[in-house]
Design goal:
The strands form 3 sheets. Strands 1, 2, 3, 4, 5 and 11 form a 6-stranded mixed β-sheet that branches. Strands 8-7-9-6-10 form a 5-stranded mixed β-sheet. A 4-stranded antiparallel β-sheet has the order 13-14-12-15, with helices on both faces. Helix 6 runs parallel beside helix 7 and helix 8 runs antiparallel to helix 9. The protein folds into 3 domains: 89 residues, D-Maltodextrin-Binding Protein, domain 2, CATH 3.40.190.10; 77 residues, 3-Layer(aba) Sandwich (D-Maltodextrin-Binding Protein, domain 2), CATH 3.40.190.10; 78 residues, Alpha-Beta Plaits, CATH 3.30.70. The longest helix has 14 residues. The mean pLDDT is 93. It is built from 9 helices and 15 strands. The chain has 274 residues and is an alpha/beta fold. The chain is elongated, with a radius of gyration of 21 Å.
Length: 274
């Protein structure tokens, strides 16, 4: 199974894809738009995309692409994010003076840098890419912060494991397929949708009231601007249902109150991680 991800091999998206499909062949893409294009054009079987992090928040570009593309969410998965200091083989923690990584990863390891003041955190375009870069350099004084998967992918060595400030650091990923290829899942209990309402007082409240009336668990609401229409918004909602019939009933009622409703996926909710 060919699965597309955005970023390098060894990224957290790579790790999440293997968690979902351990035998998958990973296809790396430089841009998220390329990931979605490959899915739509059947160049890959599916893609795994991060949608939100429990500390950093939503990946807003992926909400926009879900709305714009002919894809459907088939599964969601939660990945515990563990940051590690990685160096070239033979290096030691005390050797490291420069540490490369994505700005968000660096920000999530502030305590580690406070405790190792001689290290200078330096932004890089990607966590896994930073490991690829330092192993290519072969400099024992330069390290990277990334996943253990990145160390395995590029021959790096984990010098300090689990250096993130907050252990309650999780990322939610979606497995997406072309809309024509998604099959109904019997135990699907979660729905992701996007909708727009008229810009009048009470329209958004009326739309959200639908979920309460149908006894659904509204677990996420996100708004994104409509391109080319200032102060108009698309609302993204995740909700859970205990009765499959409630899914169609809620959507039917919502369509009566909204200008547009697009179902993004109906899938089994991921189990909470401790």
């Amino acid at each position: 199974m060919r699965i597309a991800i955005q970023g390098e091999l060894g990224s957290f998206s790579h790790e999440a894809a293997l968690k979902i499909e351990p035998q998958a062949t990973i296809v790396t893409c430089a841009l998220s738009a390329e990931v979605f294009r490959r899915v739509e054009n059947a160049e890959v079987c599916a893609a795994v995309i991060p949608i939100e992090n429990s500390l950093a928040g939503s990946v807003v570009e992926h909400f926009d692409l879900l709305f714009q593309s002919d894809v459907q969410i088939e599964r969601e998965s939660l990945l515990r994010i563990r940051h590690n200091l990685i160096g070239v083989p033979g290096s030691k923690v005390e050797d490291i003076r420069l540490v490369l990584s994505h700005p968000i990863a660096l920000a999530q390891c502030r305590r580690f840098f406070d405790e190792h003041a001689r290290m200078t955190p330096t932004p890089f375009y990607d966590t896994a890419g930073s490991v690829k870069h330092i192993t290519g350099l072969g400099d024992k004084g330069t390290g990277a912060i990334a996943s253990e998967q990145a160390a395995l992918a590029y021959g790096g060595e984990v010098l300090a494991a689990g250096i993130e400030d907050n252990p309650a650091n999780f990322t939610r990923f979606f497995l997406i397929r072309s809309g024509a290829k998604v099959q109904p899942v019997p135990d699907a209990d979660k729905v992701s949708i996007a909708f727009t309402v008229a810009n009048r007082p009470g329209t958004l409240v009326a739309a959200l009231q639908v979920f309460a009336e149908h006894d659904t668990n509204l677990c996420k609401v996100e708004s994104r601007p409509v391109q080319g229409q200032p102060w108009q918004y698309i609302f993204y909602v995740d909700y859970q249902v205990s009765d499959p019939a409630a899914t169609s009933a809620a959507l039917h009622e919502l369509r009566r109150k909204c200008i547009l409703v697009k179902e993004l996926g109906h899938y089994p909710s991921a189990q909470p991680l401790a």
